[in-house]
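Hi C.,

You asked whether I'd gotten around to modeling the 258-residue construct. I have! Everything is below, sequence then structure, no commentary in between.
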Amino acid sequence: MGELFDRYDVEPIKGDDVTIGDCFPLMFVSETDEVFCYLGMCLGDEEHRNRASFMHPYYMCGKHSTDEIVSKEIKGFYRIIDGCIILDDYVDNEYYRKHLYKRLYTGVKLASPVSCNYAVVMNHEEDEDLTRRVFGLKYDELTDLLEAYAKMMGTHHDFLTYPKLTRSINNTNFCDITELWIPKAFPYVAFNDSSYDFSHVSLFGFYRHIQLLTGYKLNSLISQALMKSGLREDILKNVFDIGRCLLHQTKVKRDIIR
C-alpha cells in the first residue's frame, strides 16, 4: 500500500462499494496514493452545467455513479488535481473500481471576500500533502513563488505587486493562457487589472508558465533568478512535478462550461 494511504486510520473500501456522498467536496485516497478530490458533478442540462455545486439531487445520495438514475443525468464529476479542474469518473466506475480507497472527511477551504488563502483541512488543521495534491502548491508556497517572480521582473512594490493571487466571489472566469475554468471563489493569478490581458490565469496555467520559463531545470537562468530573489529550491522542484498525470485528462474549459 502507498505511504499516503497508510497514513490515515480509516477503514478501506473497494471502489465497487463506494457510493455518492451526501455533499461535496468528497475526498478519497487510493491504495496507490492517488488523491481524488471531487468538488461537484457536471449535470447534463444546460441550466446547471456551470455549477460545481456542493449540492446535488437528493435521490443521487447513496447511489452509484453507474446507476441509470445517475448516469443519464450527469456528464461526469469535477475533480481537482494540481490546481486544474478536470472532468472525471467517480471511483466506483470501470477504470477505478478495483482499487481500495479510504474516504477522508476533509474540508476544501477556498478563497473568501477577505482572503485568498486556500487549503485542504482535516481535523481542523491543514493537511499539507493533500493541499499540494489538490492545489499544486500550498498557499504560502505559491505566494513565495509570486513574490520571487515579481522581484525578478521588477514589478514588486509595497503598494501594488503583479502578479498576485486573487479570486472572484461573484463571477466565473476562464484562464487567459490555458482556457481552463476558474469557478467562483477559486484562487487564480492576476498579471494585470481585470480589464487587461492575463488578468485571469489559473493556478495550473501559472505553474505551466513557470515550467516553460525554467525548462524544468534548476540551473536555468530563470530558475537561478527566482532562487536569487528568495524562492526556496524545494518549491521550484515541486512546480516541476506538477501536472505529470494530466496529459490525457479532460480539462474543464469553455466547451464544457457554457
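If it helps when you're writing up: DSSP finds seven helices and 15 strands in the chain.

Thanks,
B.
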